Amino acid sequence: MVKRLDDRILTRILVADAGVAYPDTLAFPFRPKISYNLGDHDISVVPVRNKEDGKENIRSQLGVFLKRLLKKGIEKVVVKVPGSASPGVSYHSAHDQAGVYSAMCQGLDVLEEGESIIVEAFCETLKLLPVPHLDYEEQAVGMKTQALSCTIRAVVCCTPNGNQLVSDIVCGVGHADKPLDGGNTLPLSLEGFLSQWGFQERSEIEKIRSMIKAKAEVILENWMRYESKLKKEEIGGSLMRTNVLGVNFVLTHQEDGSYDAVAVSISNSRKTIANSQIHEFQNLSKLGSSVRPLVATMVNCSQRFLLQGKHILLIGAGEEFVWEAVREYNVKITLVDGDPNNKADKCVHKFIQCVIGDRNNEDINAEKIVQLVRTHDLAIDGCMTVVDDYVPLTSLVCKALRMIGSTPEAARKSKKKSLSQKSLEQSRVNVPFLPNPSLFAVKTHGISQPEDVTGSSNHIQYPALLKPEFGACSYGVNLVKDEAECMKYLVNTKNSEKMTNDPPFGKNHGSAMHLTEYAQGTKHGVEIVVYRGKLLAAFVSDCGPTRIPQFFETSTCMPSCLNPERQRHLITAALQCISGVGHTDGVFNVEFKMTPTGPKLIEINGRMCAWFYRNWVRTVYETDILFLNFLIVCGIQPNIQPFEPTCQFMAILCSPAAHSKALSRPGIATPEILAEAHERGEIIYYEMEPLKEENTDNECGFCAISVKEKSVSEAKKQLLAVCRKYGVDTQEHPAEYVLSTFVQSPSY
Description:
Blueprint: H1 2-6, H2 8-17, E1 25-29, E2 43-45, H3 51-71, E3 76-80, E4 89-93, H4 97-109, E5 116-121, H5 132-141, E6 148-158, E7 164-175, E8 187-189, H6 190-196, H7 202-228, H8 232-235, E9 244-253, E10 259-267, H9 271-282, H10 292-307, E11 311-315, H11 320-329, E12 332-337, E13 350-353, H12 362-375, E14 382-384, H13 391-401, H14 408-415, H15 417-425, E15 444-447, E16 464-468, E17 478-480, H16 483-498, E18 513-517, E19 522-531, E20 534-543, E21 555-558, H17 564-581, E22 586-595, E23 598-605, H18 611-621, H19 625-633, E24 648-654, H20 656-663, H21 671-679, E25 684-687, E26 703-709, H22 712-725, H23 735-738
Parallel strand pairs: 1-2, 11-12, 11-14, 12-13
Antiparallel strand pairs: 1-5, 3-4, 3-5, 6-7, 6-9, 7-8, 9-10, 15-18, 16-17, 16-18, 19-20, 19-22, 20-21, 21-24, 22-23, 24-26, 25-26
């Protein structure tokens, strides 16, 4: 594989295939060992079988090539012979055919099989913009500044999820009459080079950086695509792949006044990062940044290797994304589920059908599962669930099988909402330098019967929230202003419960209700990863204004728009809350209100979030929380290196009640229409549950329509346009309003 990366012809072709600018090229490979697919590019390859004939080939082809360059106005060429050092590179006038021919023949004499000699168009660095103090110095001293050139190297790495990311861009400035490399230039940042060249506008500098970044990333992407088509023996083994490249550019001035970055070579040796490391040692705040994605990818590969073949007992089928991850990470899943017709049975190592729906007999259900594991003689490495309803049951199975996971007590405390709050109020967790968990609790009042409402104002301040103890997705939640209204909604909710078996009501665990004091502020979610009680990672998302009085969500975004300090408050609160109820290992979803005095807990979900946020975290931070969950339950401590956010997600949550006209046939946002828009890449469409035409007053979310952009403002602008196009910007659900809280806060 290294030899292929060192092949200047092959890398030049792949650069051209990626749509990146490159110099016109004439190449003479000596007895090439691979074939080249030239395509429709300005690249000519003339194989040489013996060196004497090769000199004649050079003579005949060189004249044609130089004439073509001169017609294009290119006055200079570069001759490159094997070896990465600058003595192997020489500059010549395009008019000096004899000089070019002589240099190429000298290079041909030292070629070994598989190597090549190249002549290419010289790419001139854009000229310096006028700099007043330099002009004055030239006039005062009477000395003309020598022409300068600059080489730009972008270090581009493969990320843990197989994407491409430029980790550093470093430049080298030298005199234009000789080749530049890391050995004869001082490393300089791109901003430093452009400033020296007279660029002052920050927007223009960012535009050039973005252009170089995009070109380098698409080159590595194209190389990885080429690599994936090679046979195992051609790349050196099934686990071999290229994880880092150095792409060398020259920034040129175009006829229309724009700038372009021309890729002149690719490096894959230690020198790929040598100049970046020198630059980092002079800028200690950047130390290690150029290799951070590479190291994260290497660690991720190692942890994938450790996870391969592990056998996980999964309780409850969950969503389809779990089965995709099973294939990706090569783990074995034994699924225990009550549905004998579950489609997931074809995706798992083993499917065991077991009736486990009765939440009143969790001990019996757990014993049944444990006996099935022993009967089937299963060697289980870990046990988990991604279904909220099965969290308490899973904790009992983990305890019986002595697996890593939440204790039954912790699962019970987080499942029952009022018990979560009271556990925090009474928490004895006292970690130095961390706030007490009680700071994040709100007052609650249990209601097991209508009589409990009377006198509740003596225990809790109205307005308050009436909530099911075990509900989800805001089912059964109501804002109540006094005891009379509380009694009214309690009766209505009880009647609604009798008419539905929807899991979000939490009926499987009981129909108890409770009152909780209303916390004023914005709503946020935290996906938190802990191992042995230690915080490994956390990711914050924002929710837009909820629909009062039921508080159904309307919109969401990630990364959070909160300032970094407020985000740290939420992460600290999440850690203290899960610690306060007893969780020590796993991936959890914790919801808060950010009030003027800090975070206040809404609820703790004793399992990881669903596909929606898992996909966002994976895309934004290059971190797969499901992979981390697999590792933790198998007793492997994850080594996590979340990346800086690379994009901004923003979504509108649609419900039949608010969007029935657009969602129902013949509306303009039917599931089929939205799915087509998703396939075109216009939106990211996620269907939460099938749309029932007869139930258009249902407030629960049916789908999410999201967009991915570079910034909060761009994402909001794009999502507003999408909402208007597909008719989901309604009077009952005005898009401007539900996205109004998503404003990027200043960093400090």
